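Could you join me in thinking about how sequence relates to backbone shape in a protein? Label the sequence line and the structure token line clearly, so we can match residues to local backbone shapes. Once you have written the record down, we can walk along the chain together.
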Amino acid sequence: AVVSTQSTGKKEGTGPNLAQGQQVTVKYTLMLATGKIVDDNVELTFQLGDGEAIDALDLSANLAKVGEIYEVTSQSRFAYGTLGRPPTIGPSCAVLMVVEVLQSEETPSVSDMTEKERIRIGDRKRRIGNYHFARFDYERASKNYRGACNFLDPPSYKLSDSSVSDELRDLQAKTWCNLAFSELKQEKSEPGIVAANRALEIDPFSTKALYRKGKLYEQKGELEEAEKALKMAVKVDPESQGCKAYLAELTKKIANQKKKQQRMYKKMFNLEE
């Protein structure tokens, strides 16, 4: 089997199987097929079934109970894939995990959580998204950024208290901005623009969000909208060489595009130069 689980016989669990959406804490040891230990007795808390853990752990924990110790073997597809996890895990490596389920608890509704609780879970997901982004796994990065936003920046109707601390506002803006970048990398301009716009609603002076919004509009083929975003970025930070260079590049592209259109119209209507 690509992913198989079996009890080591060391300890049986109690109660019902873990359920999707729960906050699960495990302690695990991760080994290569050679028996070399990569992670030893690492404690990890993750939301089951939400893409925070590698699939081998996510899928196998769904079959386990609290207190259970079990072993899971997995091909690379459900572990660290073709990218591996340098320098300890090479590309396309199978792994073996010994997992102990320490505890599980239901994830509260966002409306019942304190801001501190929302930050704890949301920032964890944001950091996991950053990890996947650094591995060039943009799809998983986006999934975790979106999961983070569900806690950090849920719709206002879900919240009894609409007040926002500076810490939370900073995390909201960072996460939406990172999501915009991750969507850009996947050439998903529409959801990327939505993410960039939300980042700018939270922090209208974010040059990063404006720059990425420009890139997304350029990717979509809307150069004038891209230029508007970069003009605002340069207005916010006149010293930004990167923004000024990109604005100049866009202005040149727009001019060339207009010249090309003029030549096409002249040719279409047989007009003289």
Observations:
- DSSP finds eight helices and five strands in the chain.
- Residues 119 and 168 are 7 Å apart (CA to CA).
- The chain has a mean pLDDT of 92.
